[in-house]
């Protein structure tokens, strides 16, 4: 049945991913095999909590574009880890996962650039005098951007809560 639908779409020039299954559907088994390689069912893995997944529940990443930045960075870290792992071991599932992560990195490339921006900013050596002088030289321009965001926020809250302005008017209802 699936191939007939696929053929139908092929005739219409492409066979979309919805029919062939998402990347994740292809790599589920490989993830299980990797879990086995790394003995993740042993209890010590859970010590000190998670490193990634608690961030999905902290309520900070509700905005889709922001969440993509977080996910892009996690994808990148997994990609680094698995590429490093290939130095000591090779297997079909490892290769599959690396390939899938490369695909995700392409899909998330813009978010990955945003994540890199954050990391570069976070890693600036602010105790270096040359960097400090650059920072001060750019401070007016940076805080001007901050101000623009603040004004947007004020306008938004005024729109959402018009009573805060009306409160100043005398009560005419008697
Ligand atoms: C997983 O357990 C096996 C068997 O005890 C061991 O040989 C292997 O080194 C372990 N792998 C890791 C990544 O700890």
From TrEMBL:
Question: Which first-to-last residue range defines the signal peptide?
Answer: 1-21
Q: What is its main location?
A: secreted
Q: Name one GO cellular component term.
A: extracellular space
Q: Name one GO molecular function term.
A: type II interferon receptor binding
Gene3D superfamilies in alphabetical order: 1.20.1250.10
User: Per the UniProt record, which residue ranges are transmembrane?
Assistant: none
Q: Which residues form a coiled coil?
A: none
Where in or outside the cell it occurs: the entry states: Secreted
Keywords for the protein's UniProt record, in alphabetical order: Cytokine, Glycoprotein, Secreted, Signal
Q: Show the InterPro entries listed in the entry.
A: 4_helix_cytokine-like_core, Interferon_gamma
Set out the biological process GO terms recorded for this chain's protein. Answer: adaptive immune response; humoral immune response
Its domain of life reads Eukaryota
| Family, as annotated | Belongs to the type II (or gamma) interferon family.
What's this protein's name? Interferon gamma-like
Q: Which organism does this sequence originate in?
A: Python bivittatus
């Amino acid at each position: 049945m699936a191939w007939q639908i696929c053929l139908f779409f092929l005739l219409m020039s492409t066979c979309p991913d919805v029919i062939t299954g998402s990347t994740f559907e292809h790599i589920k088994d490989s993830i299980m095999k990797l879990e086995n390689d790394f003995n993740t069912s042993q209890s010590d893995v859970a010590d000190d909590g998670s490193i990634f997944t608690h961030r999905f529940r902290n309520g900070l990443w509700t905005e889709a574009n922001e969440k993509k930045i977080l996910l892009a960075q996690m994808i990148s870290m997994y990609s680094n880890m698995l590429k490093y792992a290939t130095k000591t071991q090779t297997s079909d599932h490892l290769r599959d996962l690396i390939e899938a992560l490369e695909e995700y990195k392409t899909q998330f490339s813009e978010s990955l650039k945003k994540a890199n921006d954050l990391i570069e900013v976070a890693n600036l050596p602010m105790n270096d005098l040359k960097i400090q002088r650059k920072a001060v030289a750019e401070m007016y321009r940076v805080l001007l951007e901050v101000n623009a965001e603040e004004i947007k926020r004020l306008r938004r809250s005024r729109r959402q809560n018009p009573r805060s302005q009306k409160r100043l008017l005398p009560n005419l209802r008697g």
